[in-house]
Amino acid sequence: MDSPDNGPSESNEAPESEPVDCSEEMPVFEESPLITNSEEIPMLEELPLIKNSDQEPALKSPVKTVRIKLPPTCLQTSQEVKSDQESLDNDCDVGDIDQDIDDALDEGYMGMECTLERGFSLNESSIARDMRMERYSEVAIKYKQGSGMSRYRQALKHFIPVRKPSKEKDEMPLDRTGLYSFISYSWITSLMWKAYKTGLKEDDVPICSKYDMCAYNTDRLEMLWNEEVKKMGKDSASFHRVVLRFIKTRLIIGILIFIFTLTLGFIGPTIFMRYLITWLSSEEPITTGLIWTVGLVLSEFVRILMFGLVWSVNYRTGIRLRAACLGLMYKKLMKMSTLGSKSIGEVINLFANDAQRIYDYVVLGPLIIGGPFVAVGGVVYILWLLGPWALFGMLTFLLFYPFQYGISRLTSYLRRRTVTVTDERVCKMNELLSCVKLIKMYAWEKSFASSIAEIRSRERRLLEKSAYVQSISLAMAPTVPVLAAIITFLAHIGAGYNLTAAQAFTVTSLFVKDVRQSLNRVRTSSHVISEYFISEERVKGILLMEEISPYIGKPRWKSTAISMEGATLAWDAVSLQKRKKKKKKSKNDDASPAHKLLANSSVQEHTDVLFNIDLKVKKGELLGVCGGVGAGKSSLVSSLLGHMRLQSGSVSVQGSVAYVGQQPWILNATFRDNILLDEPFDAKRYYRAIHACNLSQDIGVLPAGDFTEIGERGINLSGGQKQRLSLARALYANKDLYLLDDPLSAVDAHVGSHIFQWLIKGALKDKTTIFVTHQLQYLPQCDRILYLREGQIAELGTHLELIKETEEYANLYRQHMESIAEEDKKREKDSESTIRTRQDSVRSNDSLQNGVHHNSPEKNPEKEEKKDQSKVPGQLITDEKMEKGDIPFAIYHIYIKAAGGYIVSSLVILTFVLNVGSTAFSSWWLSLWLSDGSGNTSVTVGNETYISENIADNPKQHFYQTVYACLIFAILGTSLLRGFAFMKTTLLASSRMHDQVFVKVFRSPMSFFDTTPIGRIINIFSRDMDEIDVRLPMTLETFVQNIWLIMSSLVFVCMVFPHFLPILVVLAIMFAFIRKVFRIGIRDFKRMENVSRSPVYSHVSTTVNGLATINAYGKQEMFTKKFMLLFDENSCVFFLFNCAMRWLAIRLDILALLVTACTAFLSLLLRGHVDAAFAGLALAYAAQLSGIFQFTVRLSTETEARFTSVQRISNYAKGLVSEAPSIIESKQPDEAWPKYGRVSFRKVQMKYRPETPLVLHDVTFDIDSMENIGVVGRTGSGKSSLGVVLFRLVELTGGSIRIDGINISTLGLEDLRSRLSIIPQDPVLFIGTVRYNLDPFDNHSDEKIWSALEQTHMKERISNLDLKLNAPVIENGENFSVGERQLLCMARALLRNSKILFLDEATAAIDTETDVKIQKTLKEAFKSCTMITIAHRLNTVMSCSRVIVMDSGRVAEFDTPKVLLSNPSSLFSKMVAAADSSWEKQ
Asked: How far apart are CA 1316 and CA 64, in angstroms?
């Protein structure tokens, strides 16, 4: 066929017509880039053109204005071209464009490469962030496997006593610390002090240590994992074994130092304290007592320092393993084309919560060794001290271990079940947030809210069970040592043996201090170990996900680009696994029915979708691919990307590949960065891509030009803009092979023609292109056409060859042309004349599904800048706010109220008082008993009578024993009561807060979701909820318990030594000062850690959604690098937060040691004035303060830090503005409303957010009952906005809308939206079943559902599924093609049977034959409905009753197509003429 006039001809001859003399301005910037419509453009003064990418751009000021002339064909102006001018498509060819761009570049225009070497940032904070990221690249080192002691060279340097700090202030000081600084954490003192003085900002925090960076440790773990898999095979490979190899040396060193600290802790009470108490009852000289006192204090001081060293080693080990595991998982994701049986929610939950559990395992897990060590040492010592009867008490202590083991097993079991439900909840939230607009339009909030509530209810039941088990464990840890001491003493005395104060309080101190701390560590360690093994299984599950074996080879002939020989390819299918009969309840029983169904489908089966494909495509060939819905067109593209499974045959591809998916994938980055995709900026390539994809005017109306930030999922772009941006990205990538999967489905005929001619036939004329399309008008210009049917090649050949064969393709093409001819007959003849129109008069955008944020083209950037200087033009996503200062009391008040109020909370606190009080009373009772001694009982031995010193001879022994024994039951009873009451109230608080924030978020207007990344919201519902559900209660319970233990200890010391009170006041002031000063730094680090998590989750979510595109463009390294940088930022503040806690702990421990020292010296000085029994009691309880005091003060800071999660959730629950009420009882319409479907707009004005300009200006029109209205217009004209205001996604600024005479602003949103229907451009399906997707409220019978499926031609497809209507739908509906998803959405609308239907080019992804049937269905099924159709293809609106032409937010024209076409000067007539000219070229 002949080449089109405006396309590249075979002879390469330029067209005769002269180019239109038009001009456009370059995008240049003043603080932030703006493309304007004025001739005077601000440009940076003396901006150098830097050709060497290693050089840094030097941006200078002030700003000058210069006139820039662009080539007439390069960019279109925003002014409409006059009707008497010739079409640009007829006047220019690609050669003109290239020459004009070359000329412009030679003259120095468009020369802005220097600002784009690193990417131009929107504001100063962004620039600083970019510079910080560059520093990571400078500091980072590559992992190299060492041997011998050389591997430990860097670690051994820490044993040098003092080292010089690094000259670079932004590097982690830890890497240059000596032994003193390493043990005492003094390297972080400057940061802590700065936090107190001025608060911490991002710039104050050093970058992550090069030895702790994600990339460095990931490489090492990956090497070990690969060795394990190679050696053991996938089935036998143990990730836990790999982890142990990764941490082996540091783990052993940490355990050895920990055992040394335990030994010192054991020596203190068993030797120094025992001999000191014995000395108090003796007549030995004071120097002896002084030796024992100094020994006691010194041993404790060394223990404190060595314990700090244990944490130093473990923290660093943990941060490295955490980074390595997540880095390895992310790299694994980069190798996948899909997630298989995993959901996005499960993956995000892995990165959010399992990372913390991996870290806890390394930090806290090794401490479990202290339990057996103390147990063995305690048994030997007490056996030596008291004899065999004392072993009864130790038996109590030893029985705790199997008890704790049982608790751990039960906790693991419950945790596994809880994680499954939590994954389901996070997955559901992710799905909800991704589709929130459609959910709101369909008024499905209640359905989703009930789903979330049901999942949360199951989660809460499991959390309660787990919490009760953990609470029992937590209560027993401090209780068991006291019970063991009581039983030991009762057995010893009951056997007739004497018990001295030295013996009793040596044992008491051993039990209360060392044994209690040991049991606490056993409890904590066993808990984190059990949770680690669950996380380890989940991580291993990701690492062992089956990767698709590479099957893409290279063709045998160099002239061949694609070769498929007998290729049969398959997808991983969602297939149901037959469950084995088990009496035992499965963990999947906690999942919802839909998730049970999907959980059972985890068996990997493959469904063949392409059969025996034989295809050869030459280099430079344009192959058109067509076929019906589900014929295998997208699968053919995926097979060439290597994303399927090759069952037989071969697939060969030569050269690099660019891919444009059917559903475009957009990054949360600037418009330009989305096109560049980390490629170096080349002005010529860039502007050619902009022009070829018809994006110039779109950029012109964006607030910051092509530096405008694009929201997640392209939320501020329309469907057509997203598709064209994706095309521009492909063109700019300059690859050899282009795979275009229905790229023109979202554009009208005119814009589609422009893209086809300039991009596919022009810019890609020398490239190999696979062009999948449903728009058959483009196929005649393809070199060959491939027609697919049911996964097989039905026909293959040129257009003329296939037409002559008069088979399926010929019939389909004729049917398509006949439908066009019918539309032509309906038009007036005067519309056939060539009418000049601006190229972009009809655009492919303003999709209602996505395009709700177009600013008016009349927007004046200068005025907007004056309006809000702080708002950066083009910045859509706001930075997450980080709170400053103390946690206000109001946050604690909110938590207490959520827990049941002050009375309930007071009663819970009372249970703690009773529990600790009964424990303390037992020790006081023992002191009283020992003080009473034998009760002055006389004993006769032989002929001599003397006063007995054996307390077993006391006449009140039975009374003392009875009370002492009863305390066992009191302690046990209050412990269980305390645990039950506390966990019940804290879980009530977390559940209420979850429900409050969920309702508030879900009831927020669309502007909130448009400007808030999903990762930020998911952070609230995953990590922050995990904090409130699990971590805050455990921390808070331990904190409250320890507060009363400290108070009881201080009361005993002050009762025995009243002289201690003044010392206590001084120490209290010192403690208060340290806590006040340095808790600020800890709190700031925690807040920064909270904020730094959100970008990580957002990046993971974006990556998972764009795996196909990332792999096609080979950008795995780019995304992996960004993930590792984001994770390093999080790791850094996370590590500093933990080190800051330990910094505080060491200093508080040393101060607490002063309490022990003062008590010991008071005992020394007051010998003879204070009974040895009570002095021993004071010493025993003072000794435990050195550990428990700092732990409690640290817990108070940690509790406050964890309350930042409560604060964040509270801020969302209180700060978010809600939409209008769902239902207004007094304004509820009749059940039959709307009865007629009349719609009336009166002077409607609307802006999307208060700071944005009006996008609808005094819109007025009336739609009668059962009318079919078409809506057309260009970019920013306001087409989408009509739907937005009709569904009240945004409230009106002025005017009113009435439906059947009722002002919709007076109705509840549910009453309004539930009576309307919408069929969106981008089809949305939810996880669940086919039935759930069509009828989530179960309002319709199966017969009605089957009828709707039959009308949308999906009955046969669904009936062929194993479970019919109950067949599973996976995430995003990926087990259905895009066209099938669209048809299911149409069936959904049919079932609603609304009187008013809004369509947003709902048949764009459907083939022509099915489209004809669907159009017929729409006319028949909705003949009694009022239909409003946003049109991207003009033939869609030709059969409409009337057409609305929108222009700049106003109704420019509104009449029948016939009337509008009769006027050659009408906008609609010009659009049709432009479309006609496009058709004529085909």
From this structure: 53
Our CA dihedral for 891, 896, 900, 906, rounded to 10 degrees, sits at -170
| Per-residue confidence (pLDDT) for residue 321, from 0 to 100 | 93
Contact 987, 464 (CB under 8 A): yes
Q: What is the mean pLDDT of residues 1020-1034?
A: 83
C-alpha 1203/C-alpha 1083 separation (Å) is 10
Closest CA to 218 of 246, 197, 199, 195: 246
User: Terminal CA-to-CA distance of the chain, rounded, Å?
Assistant: 9
Structure tokens belonging to residue 386: 């008291």
- The rounded Cα 1131 to chain-centroid distance in angstroms is 16
Lowest mean pLDDT among 81-85, 515-519, 658-662, 893-897: 81-85
Which residues are within 8 A (CB) of 745 and not within 5 positions of it... i.e. 6 or more apart? 662, 723, 773, 774, 775, 1404, 1405
Residue 231: φ, ψ to 5°:
-80, -45
Q: Do residues 1482 and 777 make contact, with C-beta atoms less than 8 angstroms apart?
A: yes
Residue 753: which residues within 8 A CB-CB, separation 6 or more? 89, 1478, 1479, 1481, 1482
Answer whether residue 296 shows pLDDT above 60. Answer: yes
Could you tell me the sign of the dihedral formed by the alpha carbons of 660, 665, 670, 676, in that order? negative
Reported confidence tier of residue 317, pLDDT bands at 50, 70, 90: very high
Q: Which residues pair with 1454 in a beta bridge?
A: 1444
Place of tokens 């390297």: 187
Token match 């005769």: residue?
16
Token pair belonging to 1071 = 């403690």
- Specify whether the backbone of 787 is left (phi greater than 0), alpha (psi in -120 to 50) or beta: beta
**Rounded to whole angstroms, how far apart are CA atoms 319 and 322?**
5
The HSE-up count of residue 735 (CA atoms within 13 Å, CB side) is 26
Let me know: does 627 contact 633? Beta carbons within 8 Å.
Answer: yes
Residues 6+ apart with CB under 8 A from 943: none
In this structure, which amino acid lies at residue 1298? R
Which range, of 71-85, 223-237, 1074-1088, averages the lowest pLDDT? Answer: 71-85
Q: Which residue has the tokens 């707009």?
A: 1241
**CA pair distance 438, 1324, nearest whole angstrom:** 8
CB 1137 within 8 A of CB 188: no
Q: Are 653 and 768 in contact (CB under 8 A)?
A: no
**Residues 306, 389 contacting (CB under 8 angstroms):** no
Which residues, in sequence order, are bridge partners of residue 1318? 1398
Inform me whether the pLDDT recorded for 320 exceeds 50. Answer: yes
Q: What angle do CA 88, 89, 92 make, to 5 degrees?
A: 75
DSSP, collapsed to helix, strand or coil, labels residue 1341 as: coil
pLDDT beyond 50 at 261? yes
Whether cis (ω within 30° of 0) applies to the bond prior to 1005 is: no
β partners of residue 34 = 28
Longest dimension (CA), the chain: 143
Torsion angle of C-alpha atoms 209, 212, 213, 215, degrees rounded to 10: 150
Whether 788 and 634 have beta carbons less than 8 Å apart is answered as: no
Burial class (CB in 10 A: 0-12, 13-18, 19+), 1010: buried
Question: Cβ-count burial of 747 within 10 angstroms (0-12 exposed, 13-18 middle, 19+ buried)?
Answer: buried
How far apart (Å, rounded) are the C-alpha atoms in residues 1194 and 1214?
Answer: 30
How many whole angstroms separate alpha carbon 432 and alpha carbon 449? Answer: 10
Mean pLDDT for the stretch of residues 1295-1320: 88
pLDDT of residue 130: 65
How high is the pLDDT of residue 54?
A: 36
Listed in order, strand segments (DSSP E) in 589-708 are 605-618, 622-627, 645-653, 657-660
3-state secondary structure of 642: coil
Choose between 581 and 963: higher pLDDT.
Answer: 963
Question: How far, in Å, CA of 1147 to CA of 193, rounded?
Answer: 14
User: Could you tell me what percentage of the chain is helix, strand and coil, using 3-state DSSP and rounding each to the nearest 5?
Assistant: 60, 10, 30
